[in-house]
Amino acid sequence: MLVSSMRAGLLATAAATFSITPTFAQEVFDLDEIIISGGLSPIGAAQYGHAASVVTAQDIEDRGITTVRDALRSLPGVSVNGSSASLTGLRIRGGEANHTLVLIDGILASGADGGYSLSGLETANIERIEVLRGPQSAFYGASASTGVVNIITRKAEMGQTASASLEVGAGTTASVFLGHRTERGAISLAISSSDDRGYDVSGDGGEKDSVRRDTAILSGDIMATEDLKLGFTIRRSKEDYDYDDTSWTPTDAASYIVDNPSNYSTRDETTASLFAEYSMLDGRLEQRFALETTRFDQSYNGGAPSKNTANAAKYRLSYGIDGTVKDANQLLNLLLEKEEKSSSSNPDYNPKATSVALEYRGSFDNGLNVQLGARHDQNSQYKDTTTWNVGLSYLLPQSGVRLHASAGTGVVDPSYFQLFASSFGYSGNPDLTPERNRSFDLGATFPIFADRGSIDVTYFNETLTDKITDISTGPGTFGFINQGGKAKRQGIEVTGNMQATDVLALRLGYTYIDAKNPDGATETRRPRNELTLGATYETFGGRGAVSADLRHVSGNYDLQGWGARSVEKLPDFTTLDVAAHYDLSDRVTLTGRVSNLFDKDTSDSWGYANRGRAVYVGLNAKF
To answer: Cβ neighbours of residue 194 under 8 Å, at least 6 residues apart?
Structure first.
């Protein structure tokens, strides 16, 4: 009830009380930063040997980013594409969309089945987004085969905080945040609402297909005793989006999509967590117990919703071998986890897993940092799996150069649809086994221009076996098999940032991917090249800034849904986004942005158009 009715009240509130987001670190994280998601417990960036990127609230504010999908598009190794704004897939290092685990505040986002479509997921009230590249199943289990995205929402800061924001133009976005923190505990409420007002995804000037989303997040914690901390978080989101039909007799891209103004889908998401953290032995032993639940319901055109749930109980023990957990150079982590999933679409789909994971970290005086992890999952519905992970980081003395390398394995369980499908001409295969990924990467971070910036270059190599693929079983009918052979993916990731002058900051991201199926065919929707260049210039006498971000995509292939149904190369494209903000006072900020400034025609999938030029203005305020 709260989520479904919040839009009108929120827009009215935001119109009267605008706010800004807080300031945080740079997109390319510095070595003093903590990677919250980097293992079984948070880890320092200097000790982390895996490839990772962090998008902060300051990045989001400076660049005028309003959706998570746009925040991720600038990151190396990450491809965000789909058939429309409402159906957006996330791929890391050329993996499938369901090979990346998406978490919100560390809680599974998608429920029981498959990957998580970012669609209208907004950046309002997000503190940071952490992206870990490479297999993370040793720490997170199935679905973390190619990486993890953890979206961390804003929490209360010391004292009282009240803020709100409103943006209008091609779409409308509003948010409100209330928080209160003392030495004993905190409580916060974050509410946001967005309506992108849509555009015609067929690209032929037909009816607009929009995405509307409301979200409420309530979080709190309290120090019950000096050593015991209790906390909770609960998030509710409701999303409605429009979609079109595809033609039964298409002859080209223009005739493939058929406008249908009556089609719509509703998503109802709930994630929640209760946790307790207890410190013993003067901080050398810490324990954490958490209960987590995810519910993801989706319906089409007002029909009965499919209800997917995931429940987990997690116990973590951390022991500092040579000091407190927070300061130890050598640390042991143990995780015990029990998870159960279900789907209303088929009572036979009720997988359960009991897991144990162990992690060791060591930081040595010679500059070497080691992270080792292993996990065993005992599954009720699939074969048991064991995964491992190694991360190494070494700071070369007196040079500032940091070498890093990682290797590991990942698994992805078959989805409900792949196991039990009985619609759209598909039949499931209950004998499918988990897909397996083996990976390694090597990289180095170099300081540049007298430490005014840095550049990181990483080579990665991944091999997927037992790939689940669909096959034709007859005229208009399809099934699923574990494909023989190996699907190979390799590439280069480049990340750079530089404070060129006191007022000008530059950034760079580049990804080259060569992704092949076991039969040698090119994988679809994995652009060969993605380049992003950005700059932020502080101006207006220090009261504001202007940002520009250029994105170039080339070498992207997709299956054409007409004619010979062949895989063909999509047109290359380059877009430019600009944004600016100006402090009208110490509390009120004026914002403006233009996406796709030159109104370029772009597409991630044959037959579907991306949005053209869109203009927005807004006000933010804090109290």
So the answer is: 66, 120, 122, 124, 171, 172, 173, 174, 211, 212, 213, 214
Q: Which residues of the chain have pLDDT under 50?
A: 1-29, 31
| C-alpha of 234 from chain center | 19
Handedness of CA 554, 200, 175, 6 (dihedral sign): negative
- Helix, strand, coil shares of the chain as percentages rounded to 5? 10, 55, 35
Rounded Cα–Cα distance for residues 543 and 470 (Å)? 55
d(CA 593, CA 546): 9
- How many residues are there in the chain? 623
Starting at the earlier edge strand, list the strands of the sheet with 126-133. 51-56, 126-133, 147-153, 100-104, 107-108
What pLDDT does residue 20 have?
31
The tokens of 169 are what?
A: 């133009």
CA distance 524 to 568: 9
Half-sphere exposure for 507 (CA within 13 Å, toward CB) = 24
Q: For residue 50, which of 612, 488, 445, 326 has the smallest C-alpha distance?
A: 445
Q: What's the pTM value of the predicted model, to 2 decimals?
A: 0.91
pLDDT one-digit tens code per residue, 379-415: 888 788 999 999 999 999 988 899 999 999 999 988 8
Q: What is the C-alpha separation between 518 and 531, in angstroms, rounded?
A: 27
What digits encode the pLDDT tens for the residues 151-187?
Answer: 999 999 999 999 999 999 999 999 999 999 999 999 9
**Is there a contact between 458 and 442 (Cβ–Cβ < 8 Å)?**
yes
> Read out DSSP for 602-623?
--SBTTBPPP--EEEEEEEEE-
The three-state secondary structure class of 421 is coil
DSSP notation for 360-410: EEEE-TTSEEEEEEEEEEEESSS--EEEEEEEEEEE-TTT--EEEEEEEEE
- Whole-number pLDDT of residue 357: 98
Look up residue 139 and give its DSSP letter: H
CB 498 within 8 A of CB 453: yes
Query: What is the spatial distance between Cα 611 and Cα 227, in angstroms, rounded to a whole number?
Result: 52
- Taking the C-alpha atoms of residue 524 and residue 301, their distance in angstroms, rounded to an integer, is 29
The whole-angstrom separation of Cα 496 and Cα 467 is 34
CA distances to 147, 257, 431 from 439, in Å? 11, 38, 26
Q: What pLDDT sits at residue 79?
A: 93
Q: Supply angle C-alpha 479, 483, 489, rounded to 5.
A: 125
